[in-house]
Design a protein that fits this description.
With 312 residues, this protein is of the alpha/beta class. It contains 7 helices and 19 strands.
Length: 312
């Protein structure tokens, strides 16, 4: 195979999980090769103030945090490849990873840290307000909306959980759902309906957003109901809770995935259904989805890869 290289550890992905795995693998003298992909830094690259990552007295900007992780992984000896992985063959050993340039890398172990993407509403104005009133993570950003009015879009368990969580900070939470009933579990719905800080707008969807320019901030949502009638809702923040899509398409048919496409890992481990392949971060974690838990799983994956290699 032309231009073939071999590594003990190959890491796919460059978010908190991927960079942490790289740091631990490099410090174990495993000389890891890390594919950074098309968006190094992952979801934190569109996050402004990060106040819940340990080690910072004051809020750190998401891109700054990821740049420090990138530099740290380089400093300890990780080799970075700024390419997208096009295919992976886990049917033989060593595993074969091919990049967009066609170059093939073989690997004794593979750490998958490709993450997940939040589903957005798809409005042209939505991207403008991301980080300035629009978020997909109440746990990450709810703290910034103390005594303010916020809205949540969605009708499943995630939307109900986000709305309930936001009542710890917000003055009022409005749940907006395009249907006349929720998909969430009945017990979760009961708690939601009993909460005096939550109201529900049924049969409606967000069709536009308005805000101030200096400083940039969201101030109103434009809603449209089933009859085509439009109304405006004054809010300080909008949380989109219509699901996430894990970046696991490369591994379909090769690893065990759940019904939503998340990689299934052994409980208490990052080990996947293929020996020597480990998954860390949001590509396998649909419960917590935090930078700090992703980093922790990246550490676990590197340590498990090291143990796997030492026992071979």
């Amino acid at each position: 195979m032309e231009n073939q290289k071999h590594r003990k550890v190959v890491i796919i992905g460059a978010g908190p999980a991927g960079y942490t795995a790289a740091i631990y693998a490099a410090r174990a003298n495993l000389k890891p090769l890390q594919f950074l992909g098309f968006q190094p830094g992952g979801q934190l690259m569109i996050t402004t103030d990060v106040e819940n990552f340990p080690g910072f007295e004051h809020a750190v900007q998401g891109p700054d945090l990821m740049e420090q992780m990138r530099l740290q992984s380089l400093h300890v000896g990780t080799e970075h490849v700024e390419e997208i992985v096009e295919s992976v063959d886990l049917s033989k050993r060593p595993f074969v990873v091919k990049s967009e340039t066609g170059e093939a890398i073989t690997a004794d172990t593979l750490i998958i840290a490709t993450g997940a993407k939040a589903r957005w509403l798809g409005l042209p104005v939505e991207e403008k307000f991301r980080g300035f009133g629009v978020s997909a993570c109440a746990t990450c950003d709810g703290f910034f909306y103390k005594n303010k009015r916020v809205a949540v879009v969605g009708g499943g368990n995630a939307a109900v959980e986000e709305a309930m969580y936001l009542t710890n900070f917000a003055e009022h939470v409005t749940l907006i759902h395009r249907r006349d009933s929720l998909r969430a579990e009945k017990i979760a719905q009961d708690r939601l309906f009993k909460n005096p800080k939550i109201s529900v707008i049924w049969n409606s969807q967000v069709v536009d957003m308005k805000g101030s320019e200096n400083p940039l901030s969201l101030t109103h949502l434009v809603l449209e109901n089933m009859q085509g009638e439009k109304t405006e809702l004054a809010v300080d923040g909008l949380f989109v809770a219509i699901g996430h899509d894990p970046a696991s398409h490369l591994f379909k048919g090769q690893l065990n995935l759940d019904s939503e496409g998340y990689i299934i890992a052994k409980p208490g481990s990052t080990l996947t259904s293929v020996e020597g392949v480990f998954a860390a971060g949001d590509v396998q974690d649909k419960v917590f989805r935090q930078a700090v838990t992703a980093a922790g799983q990246g550490c676990m994956a590197a340590l498990e890869a090291e143990r796997y290699l030492s026992h071979r």
